[in-house]
Amino acid sequence: MPRIKKEDIFYTLLKQLTDVLVAAGEEYVNIFSGYPDTLARIPRMKMIETQADDCVRDIMTRLYTSFITPFDREDISDLALAMDDVVDHMEAVTLRLDLFNVQDMRPEATELAKLTLVAVEEMREMINHLPNYKHDEEVMRRAIAIGHVEDGGDAIYENALRILFREDETRGKESLAWLRIFDRMEHCLDSCDKAAGVVRNVVMKSS
Question: How many domains does the chain have?
Answer without folding.
Answer: 1
